Amino acid sequence: MTSRDDGVVPSAIDEVVRQHVFIEAWLAGTSVDPGGWQTFADVLDDGFVIVPPSGIAEPKSKLLERFHPANGTMPGVRLEIRNGVSIHRTTDLEVVRYEEWQIHPERGNQRISTAVFRANAQTPLGWSWLTLHETALPG
Asked: Which terminus in the chain has less CB density within 10 A, N or C?
């Protein structure tokens, strides 16, 4: 597992926040690190599956195919990660729950998510996304 300069091992919640900083910039069409798209894709395990609020499970390939053209489609969007909590953590795995608030005047929404991560020293914060299940929050 990767540790920061101060010796602290980042949690998977730190990875959630890091990934959503990129997602916000991607959707807003603002400055994105040149390697950002590749890093976004690389931290998703090859077997990654997302279950979005629609309930239709998508493998990594389908998510990337759908998400790549979304660059700049939500100018001004802000993403906030709230109430992140580690449900269970071992040396190799962490399960987290968090709320994602997409703040946008036309297409804002919020969801609660549960994600499972595997330790992976090849990723920026030492975690690969294995699966993500999102449920829409009311209002």
From this structure: C
